[in-house]
Amino acid sequence: RVFANRTWMHHFGEPLVETPSDFGLQVERPVDLDLLDFLADRLIRGGWKLKPLHRLIVSSRTWKRASLVPEMNPFAEQLATDPTNRYLWRANRRRLDLESLRDTLLSVSGQLDLTMFGRPTSITSPENHRRTIYAIVERQNIPDVVRNFDFASPDCSIARRQITTVPQQALFMLNSDFVTRSAQALASRSESKDPAMVTRINRIYRLALRRDPTSEEQDLGAAFVTARGWDQYAQVLLMTNEMMFVD
After folding, report:
1. 173-228: pLDDT as tens digits
2. DSSP per residue, 154-215
3. β-strands 245-246, 94-95: how paired?
4. Distance of alpha carbon 3 from alpha carbon 181, whole angstroms
5. Do 62 and 85 touch, CB atoms closer than 8 A?
6. pLDDT above 90 coverage of the chain, percent
């Protein structure tokens, strides 16, 4: 049950059991106990292999649901009945964790190094373009960016990360050299043979947000680029909630 619960939490942001490290009799009984038992049974029957369990979850209708609630029945009624989403009728809106955020910025800017294995590298090194999972963790020297984005303490077992919203996170996205370099790389990547500004705005939206901009967003983008340039415009897109949250 513990492994099934943590696998579920990895994909949905919220666990089936609110106390992932405590399955004792004193904790609140989960609403979806049958679902938890089903996942645990599949894990055991699958030889304790987690990959089939991940595949089962991400191919389910529940995982494919969006967090946005249409303003119509029966969704409005469901929101009033179950505002905390205990019955999984929609997805839970989640902010990217530090590893996912850093990897996303490297990916959309065309800098991500997918090389596997090898020795770890400092997360603050300008030359480090590898996935964040390969960043070295020094218990006595944790970088500020790691602390600011709720990284799990390496000194003890952490069943569930704390999620905070603090000014340092916004200041990092505004002022850090890493985000600035990512924005510059994204702006350069959006260049094309077509000199039209709207063409480049469309391309940078597809690279960063994987969609086309609306006509209003095109107008706002053109006005911003004229005033501040492409590098800062790319940085604005990297700072949007659409980039930093999973809906």
Report:
1. 999 999 999 999 999 999 988 888 999 999 999 999 999 999 999 999 999 999 99
2. TTS--SS------HHHHHHHHH-HHHHHHHHHHHHHT--S---HHHHHHHHHHHHHSSPPPH
3. antiparallel
4. 38
5. no
6. 49
